From TrEMBL:
This is Trafficking protein particle complex subunit 2-like protein. Coiled coil: none annotated. Pfam families: Sedlin_N. It comes from Microctonus aethiopoides. InterPro entries: Longin-like_dom_sf, Sedlin, TRAPPC2L.
Length: 138
């Protein structure tokens, strides 16, 4: 089960964070922010190889006892972070890739809105409903 989804801007500022439980939101904010360093490290290893690569899915960033944190980076350096429960072994890499594809499409639709100001927080009902659907809250 997806317990947290975050969109991080190219300047490493959070644009959107949604957690399944508001009681543990601070814990997930911490996990998302610690994953930014790992994402930057993966993106900057062998700068030429990283920029030539067409692979946007970064895979498993790190794992804790309770959660697995996965990353995805777009061509415009916007980063997506998804936190899954470790107890749920039913998620495979292809399932996580599909989550990121759905999230990327929802993000693209949200920022293509002519009233969206680039770099601002993402406040969109359609994006929110897409995230709720991905997280299983809808």
């Amino acid at each position: 089960m997806v317990v947290c989804i975050a969109v991080i801007g190219k300047d490493n500022s959070p644009k959107y964070i949604k957690c399944a439980s508001e009681l543990t939101a601070l814990q997930f904010h911490y996990k998302v922010h610690t994953s930014i360093d790992i994402i930057e490290e993966k993106l900057n290893v062998g700068n030429k190889a990283a920029t030539d690569s067409k692979e946007l899915f970064l895979g498993l960033l790190y794992s804790t006892e309770e959660h697995k944190i996965f990353g995805y980076a777009t061509n415009t350096k916007v980063k997506f972070v998804v936190v899954l429960q470790s107890s749920n072994a039913s998620f495979r890499d292809n399932d996580v890739r599909m989550i990121f594809r759905k999230l990327h499409v929802a993000y693209s639709n949200a920022v293509c809105n002519p009233f969206y100001i680039p770099g601002d927080q993402i406040i969109s009902r359609s994006f929110e409903s897409s995230v709720n659907e991905i997280m299983g809250l809808a």
